[in-house]
């Protein structure tokens, strides 16, 4: 039986953690407090309690080659400096490509009985 691992948050780091845990034969469960993945890269009109937010026009401050996952480059047609909505799209493509969504529990405020 694989060891179970808890990950908090389905942002850039959380998604990478889930993927790596699965590659190592672990059984990750990611607890995400919001209703979608993306973490800081997900713009919302209304700020959610306990969640940092960005403004609608945020663009990455590092080029796409430096901002991508090593095993999943940004599509060629993406701009060099990626707007937040495009970055979020990329994160969703990454999650789908590596079948990570099945490991994420959305709208979780606190983990219950993790053993």
From TrEMBL:
Transmembrane annotation, as ranges: none
EC number(s) from the headed UniProt entry: 1.-.-.-
Xref: Pfam families: FMO-like
Superkingdom, natural source: Eukaryota
Listed cofactors: FAD
Family to which this protein belongs: Belongs to the FMO family.
Name the record gives this protein: Flavin-containing monooxygenase
Source organism (scientific name): Phocoena sinus
